[in-house]
Amino acid sequence: MIRTRFLIHKINGSWFSSKVQCRAKSVVAYPIEHNETKDVNNEMQYARPTKDIPGPKALPLLGNWFRFLPYIGEYSKADAVTQLRMMHDQYGDIVKLDQIGFRRSLIFLFSPELCEKMYRMEGTWPQRIAMETLHYYRKNREHIYNGQYGLATSQGKIWHDFRSKVNPYMMQPRTVKAHVAQISEVTGDFVKKMRALRDSETLELPKGFNNELLKWALESICSIALDCRLGCLDSNLAADSEPQIMINCVREMFDLMYSMEVQLSLWKVYNTRNLKKFFRALDTLNGIATKHIERAKAKYETMDDSTNLHNRSILEKLLRIDKQTAQVMALDMLTAGVDTTGNVSASLLYYIANNPEKQEKLREEAISVLPDKTSPVTPDILNQTRYSKACIKEVLRLFPIAVGNLRTMQTDVCIGGYKIPAGFDVAACHSLIAQKPTQFSRTEEYIPERWLRGNTEFPSAKEAHPFAYMPFGFGPRTCIGRRFAEMELETLLLTVIRNFRIEWHHGPLEIESRFINNVTTPLQFKLIDL
């Protein structure tokens, strides 16, 4: 599940004001009505200049880079989320950070009201000038991308045309349902492996189980994208096997993107060592992925046209429209669907293991739809389950895969009473907002019930602002893989809980917040057969 921005929010008319229109079939614009235009003009007339936005003061010549220097900088020992929390506590709901080496100035928003204002200003073709290292790589690999750089880094009409082609095959519920059987089969194999991996005496999983979840995520997304199995779940998979190399490359990719784009780096000035490592990692990843894509293409060419289109892989569906779009989308899925989904599944199992009462309630639901431990998950079953979906929503409130959502302003706008010129990057920090006690009561507790309709016993998520919780983003640039990620997570959760009582007997979950959030705690869950 990649964020890339990481990036699970509910697109439902009741969640947003009547002026919001959300559709899966096409890229939707959010027009500003006449009265809104008048209000915007009035706001701009009285707006304060950008330089007045609170934030760490940049020193002449030095800028703000010294604040992030090891040992001496006030933000040097903090991860990305902690840095943001420190700035929010010190400067308020809107903070400007500029002059960090060669990085662009950035404005952070820490209130849902300001975030909503940002989204209303994003335009028909929202821009998100981020992941510049990834875009630089793709521009330098024209033999692979041929002018189509994928959804993560493309902008304007190129992005819009690409998104319009893939939306019907990525966002429609019926398309996702066609792949439930595949994911159920992969997950059933994964549960067998979990049983084999646990210690015969302690019943605990090994410290390396984190990596096993990444294998499950890669095997799952490959089955969706290419309709093939990579063999990620084979016993004693070699450290130099192609699936493990792909996982390693994805992890290295995110680590290097953080080092070059968030920390201080001169990669824009010359080919740094990290930039060279970045290119090598992506070349290796794309080399392996392309080989499997070509095999899937050859398989597609031999298929009978009478085969139901909905039962085919995403690659096969897109090949009927545009070969280059199919190639790039498949590469994106194999790149973005590993660390994202793998880390969320890790935190999901952790919270379920640490909340026995919630786990038993979840198990009751699992048993009601899965009569036997080996019963497959089906689309009809996923239509019936409510509590498992609430469990996933709640874990994404506590553990979103990305810090927030970024937009690059295309026109001069007014947010929070300040004029923000076109070209400025603005980030909606939903990961912090979703944990504010002003938005969610008992905010540090894991309470899936808050997402259930008709809930009267627990605090309700309806009390929060509609723009407080958005782990999948919002609007036309909402995460393209959202529905697949939700389906994979729910299938895993139901299957695991139907087979085991899962316990946790170690310390609190440790998270490293870098380009995406990573679970660093060894996941030594105790699995007790039911």
SSE blueprint:
Elements: H1 34-46, H2 80-91, E1 94-97, E2 106-109, H3 112-120, H4 132-139, H5 142-145, H6 156-170, H7 173-177, H8 180-197, H9 209-226, H10 242-261, H11 273-301, H12 314-319, H13 323-336, H14 339-353, H15 356-369, H16 379-384, H17 387-398, E3 405-408, E4 413-415, E5 418-420, E6 425-428, H18 430-433, H19 482-499, E7 500-503, E8 511-513, E9 517-519, E10 526-529
Parallel strand pairs: 2-6
Antiparallel strand pairs: 1-2, 3-6, 4-5, 7-10, 8-9
Helix pairs in contact: 8-9, 8-19, 9-14, 10-11, 11-13, 14-17, 14-19, 15-19
Major beta-sheet overview: 4 strands, mixed
* Total beta strands: 10
Helicity range of the residues? 40-55%
Mean pLDDT: 89
Structural class: alpha+beta
Into which percentage range does the β-strand content fall?
5-15%
The strands making up the biggest β-sheet line up spatially as 1-2-6-3
Q: List the total number of helices.
A: 19
Low-pLDDT windows of residues? 1-34
Large-scale geometry:
globular
User: What quaternary form is this?
Assistant: single chain
Radius of gyration: 23 Å
SSE pattern, N- to C-terminal = HHEEHHHHHHHHHHHHHHHEEEEHHEEEE
Determine the N-to-C terminus distance: 29 Å
